[in-house]
Design brief:
With about 260 residues, the protein is an alpha+beta fold. The chain has one domain. The protein contains eight helices and 13 strands. Strands 7-8-13-9-10-11-12 form a seven-stranded antiparallel beta sheet, sandwiched between helices. Strands 4-1-6-5 form a four-stranded mixed beta sheet. Helix 2 packs across helix 4. The chain is globular, with a radius of gyration of 20 Å. About 40% of the residues are buried.
Length: about 260
Amino acid sequence: MRKRFGVKKTVILLILLMTLLSNSVSFVYAYPYSGTSNQKSACNEMRNMAIIYWRPAMGVTIGGQSYNMNTTYRGIPYTQATNVTYQQFVNNGTDGPTYFIYSGSSGNDCSTAVALAWKTCFSSIDYAGIWTGDFLSCAQYGSNSTYHMSTVGGYAMGSGYSSTKTYCLDKGYSTISGYYASLQPGDSCFRYFTNSSGTLKKHAILVVAKETRSGVPGIVYIDQIGRGYGDNNYTTWHYEKWISYSDLYNSYYLPVYCTSVR
């Protein structure tokens, strides 16, 4: 005899679905990560931080951004004031259809998020102390032993370079794209330069795949980017976003990797 699906369960499922849709939160599809077990662990940790659905128990401000009660958000919030791990974020709420957080200071930033992904293979990494200047140091000298970082392709800019923009333009696309071609899941790309307005542009992303689309080579990445820059107004993350090598180059990104992940 076929078991009937209970009315109560149907109503609950409909409520959950309507809640997600009413808050304009897009559904997330998992990308099939490849590589070693370490590389998959790093990518999966970044994914966990980016896709967790949560609601504040009350209206809170995190990283200068307001989060409203009864609104569903996706991904650990962006802030430079704290350096929360995925597990710490989960522990700060109650388990249910979504996670509810109670503190207004829970979050992390771009370089911390990358370091936390690497932490799955490098447990002692100082994820709270890392910043994009440490990625720049790796690019200048070819490695950064404190964070087990090396450059993809073995380049070393030299201490005379303090800008990824200057180095990219000096070396040209042919050379820099050759470095991109050696990227692997769990690696990172970063940029560090001052734009024409005098603003320091610094950011780090985690590579989760390489992918060629319509004959154009590129990467798939996840990054903690901040409210107003994410995939929508309900997240501070870019999740499994594709970017071509040429756009990476034109944004002055350089590739590095964690030796504990590869």
